[in-house]
């Protein structure tokens, strides 16, 4: 029975790794303490998969920070500024690259394909020296072997590694990063030889870039790379794993022709066309097909009957002994274990499967294919599928109708943006280069405790409101002292920008431990959208009006936009994403209108995750952007000219969707910028006209480093070179919730000082 798991969550069922990392970073525990937690986690994951009966169990899918950074370490491709001594890479160098240190900023971080996971972008150039500098893959393989478990070591493939890299500072863009393939492959050969010597019989190369729209030169790199590696593969089985989308026909042809490869893994959940390709174009004889039928990106129980029939159809194409049941991608993008969900009701629980349950599903499917179908398991699954389809909790006719009525009409504010900005300035009277922050202030231990105790009914509502009010007051006073122009209340009542809203909307369910890694030690707990969405009552008006009453300065109302709520939730797989998005937009629209009616003059609707919902294939992007931008406009098309609508986005690389961003028609946009080398500005340099307010972040909030006033002045000057003075805002990259006050106070103080220095010069 052949079953395979592409990868597994590394944080642990209760985020054990997160806590171990953070206490190590804070100097509270030793490196050995951290290593012990990590080893225990790996051990329990391997054992769990072995006990479930999985044949191909992955190793090296654990990471202390990020698997791409692990690959950079493996290849010794450490940027010079980290002063690495060339020895086996240890925590110092590794975490400096990930997080920066007192003297050097971190490497850039960017989204992993269309997920909410972020990886550390390799920085390469003609002078990058590659050497085998981290033996982690082999160490993990040996560690599992010592536990009696033979694993499949997982490496990021050489071509994907290069295609995800960027040019190091100072390297000409004309330099082809793919020209480094030979150097990179030399190191891979050493790694492969060592894994082989250790006893590995399979190696998995993750080459997810094969699903992208690649040109012929990029595709050729795969052919070159694997021809070059072929001799190293003798005596080994090699799996090329792809995920997250359809593999385009050309790439499918290239992939399945790769030399020395024994098997190919495809995402058959998102890659429905790949399924057709396999059936129509065929599959190379005597190769293994790793069929990713169990969804690694969502939390729904697999429709086992449907998967089984897909698998049976594939069996007739590739042959019985060549079909391996697998997950669509690494399970790191789903929650860890349903067993720890004590608060979900049993009906909803019966509809779900987290990573641990998906492992069991994969195995059940493999057994069924082998003629050992567990009838009880399959019929319980069929009953759950049927109950979800017919449950009255899922459907709300009124919401369905309101969302359907939106179609075909445009939703826009009546006046154009420059007239609106004039009207707003008359009321707000802001200085040039107005300063603001993105929303959250540091989330202290005390705050978290207060929220926890309130949730657990350990403190009364009155005590809770009092504590939060004090916190808001503290944050308001601090901003006034810092002399920030447009204030925020600091979001102390929010655990998370999506969960907070989901908890107050109908159609959402919540987990207690359904965490998914976002970057480094940071995890998010996406809500589960299981039914039609509506807003029973106002969600933020109480806190926002309280905060506004504490100051004469404008206080931003703070909402999360529909696209972000959608993209950061586990969504329904029984209706199109766009339908769900329109429903959420209507709910947020009501909130916007209530805030306005309560006297809030500036309302920020965060669309942090707009870009990450962008389909990987160009051909599907326009449609997504159309309904996503439309959904955003629906939320605020009804407000007065004098109400200033802000939005915030956190990603680099938005140049290709600038016209959609303009199409959102917000009055002001604040946007992450500093960790991506001001790529953002180039689009304006190239002449795109932007009439609304814009605040490209002036410093990186992902790092504990405190930027100096001069540095911020420099940054702003660079922005002023391409953007008009009267539209530029000054703000950090993103919310401050992960930072400490010891970092936030001086950083914001320097930021305000920088704005003031420039105001005197303009
Ligand atoms: N308003 C949110 C905050 O400041 C925005 C966070 C985000 O963009 N991820 O926390
Ligand atoms: Zn952000």
TrEMBL record:
The active site is at residue 702. GO terms for molecular function: 5-methyltetrahydropteroyltriglutamate-homocysteine S-methyltransferase activity; methionine synthase activity; zinc ion binding. It comes from the Eukaryota. InterPro entries: Cbl-indep_Met_Synth_N, Cobalamin-indep_Met_synthase, Met_Synth_C/arc, UROD/MetE-like_sf. Pfam families: Meth_synt_1, Meth_synt_2. Pathway: Amino-acid biosynthesis; L-methionine biosynthesis via de novo pathway; L-methionine from L-homocysteine (MetE route): step 1/1. L-methionine binds at residues 438-440, 491, 606. Its cofactor is Zn(2+). GO terms for biological process: methylation. 5-methyltetrahydropteroyltri-L-glutamate binds at residues 18, 116, 522-523, 568. HAMAP family: Meth_synth. This is 5-methyltetrahydropteroyltriglutamate--homocysteine S-methyltransferase. It comes from Elaeis guineensis var. tenera. The lineage of its organism: Eukaryota, Viridiplantae, Streptophyta, Embryophyta, Tracheophyta.
């Amino acid at each position: 029975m052949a079953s395979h798991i592409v990868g597994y969550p590394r944080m642990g069922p209760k985020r054990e790794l997160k806590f171990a990392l953070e206490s190590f970073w804070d100097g509270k525990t030793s490196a050995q303490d951290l290593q012990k937690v990590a080893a225990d986690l790996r051990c329990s994951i391997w054992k769990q998969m072995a006990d479930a009966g999985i044949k191909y169990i992955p190793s090296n899918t654990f990471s202390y920070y990020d698997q791409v950074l692990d690959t950079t370490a493996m290849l010794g491709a450490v940027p010079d500024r980290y002063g690495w001594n060339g020895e086996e890479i240890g925590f110092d160098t590794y975490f400096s690259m990930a997080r920066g240190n007192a003297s050097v900023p971190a490497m850039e971080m960017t989204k992993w394909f269309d997920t909410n996971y972020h990886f550390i972008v390799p920085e390469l150039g003609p002078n990058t020296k590659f050497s085998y500098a981290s033996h982690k893959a082999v160490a993990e393989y040996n560690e599992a072997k010592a536990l009696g478990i033979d694993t499949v070591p997982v490496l990021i493939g050489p071509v994907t590694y290069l295609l995800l890299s960027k040019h190091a500072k100072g390297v000409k863009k004309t330099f082809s990063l793919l020209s480094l393939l030979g150097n990179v492959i030399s190191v891979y050969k050493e790694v492969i030889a060592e894994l082989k010597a250790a006893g590995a019989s399979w190696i998995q190369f993750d080459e997810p870039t094969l699903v992208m729209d690649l040109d012929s030169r990029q595709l050729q790199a795969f052919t070159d790379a694997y021809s070059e590696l072929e001799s190293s593969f003798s005596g080994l089985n090699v799996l090329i794993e792809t995920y997250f989308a359809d593999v385009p026909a050309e790439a499918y042809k290239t992939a399945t022709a790769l030399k020395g490869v024994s098997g190919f893994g495809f995402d058959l959940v998102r890659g429905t066309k790949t399924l057709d390709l396999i059936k129509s174009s065929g599959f190379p004889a005597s190769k293994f097909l790793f069929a990713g039928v169990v969804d690694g990106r969502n939390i729904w129980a697999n429709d086992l009957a449907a998967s089984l029939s897909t698998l049976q159809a594939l069996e007739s194409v590739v042959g019985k002994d060549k079909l391996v049941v697998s997950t669509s991608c690494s399970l790191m993008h789903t929650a860890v274990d349903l067993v720890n969900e004590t608060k979900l009701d049993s009906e909803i629980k019966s509809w779900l499967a987290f990573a641990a349950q998906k492992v069991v599903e994969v195995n059940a499917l493999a057994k069924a294919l082998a003629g050992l179908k567990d009838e009880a398991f399959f019929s319980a699954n069929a009953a759950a599928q049927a109950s979800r389809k017919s449950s009255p909790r899922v459907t709300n006719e009124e919401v369905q109708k309101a969302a359907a009525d939106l179609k075909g009409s445009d939703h826009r504010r009546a006046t154009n943006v420059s007239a609106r900005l004039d009207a707003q300035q008359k009321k707000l009277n802001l200085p040039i280069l107005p300063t603001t922050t993105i929303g959250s202030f540091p989330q202290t231990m005390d705050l978290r405790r207060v929220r926890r105790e309130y949730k657990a009914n350990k403190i009364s509502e009155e005590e809770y409101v009092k504590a939060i009010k004090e916190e808001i007051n503290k944050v308001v006073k601090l901003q006034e002292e810092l002399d920030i122009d447009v204030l925020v209340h600091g979001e102390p009542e929010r655990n998370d920008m999506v969960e907070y809203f989901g908890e107050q909307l109908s159609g959402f369910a919540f987990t207690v431990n359904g965490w998914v890694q976002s970057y480094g030690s940071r995890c998010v707990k996406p809500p589960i959208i299981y039914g039609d969405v509506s807003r029973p009552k106002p969600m933020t008006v109480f806190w926002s009006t309280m905060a506004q009453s504490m100051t004469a300065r404008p206080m931003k109302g703070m909402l999360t936009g529909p696209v972000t709520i959608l993209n950061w939730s586990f969504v329904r797989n029984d209706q199109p994403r766009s339908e769900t998005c329109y429903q959420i937009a209507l709910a947020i629209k009501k909130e916007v209108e209530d805030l306005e009616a309560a006297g809030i003059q500036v309302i920020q609707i965060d669309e942090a995750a707009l870009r990450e919902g962008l389909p990987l294939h160009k051909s599907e992007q326009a449609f997504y952007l159309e309904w996503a931008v439309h959904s955003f406009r629906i939320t605020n098309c009804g407000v007065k000219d004098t109400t200033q609508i802000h939005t915030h986005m956190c990603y680099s690389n938005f140049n290709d969707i600038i016209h959609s961003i303009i199409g959102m028609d917000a009055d002001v946009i604040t946007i992450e910028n500093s960790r991506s080398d001001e790529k953002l500005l180039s689009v304006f340099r190239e002449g795109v006209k932007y009439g609304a307010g814009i605040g490209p972040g002036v410093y990186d909030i992902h790092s504990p480093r405190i930027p100096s006033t001069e540095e911020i002045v420099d940054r702003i000057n660079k922005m002023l070179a391409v953007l008009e003075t009267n539209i530029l805002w000054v703000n950090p990259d993103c919310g401050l919730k992960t930072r400490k006050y010891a970092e936030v106070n001086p950083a914001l103080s320097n930021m305000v000082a920088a704005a003031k220095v420039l105001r005197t010069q303009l």
